[in-house]
Amino acid sequence: MKYIVDQDNNLYQIKTINILQIIDCLQTALTTNDPEQHYRSIYNALSLSDEIVQLEMRNQTPTKLEKEFTDETT
Question: 10 Å Cβ neighbour count for 16?
Answer without folding.
Answer: 10
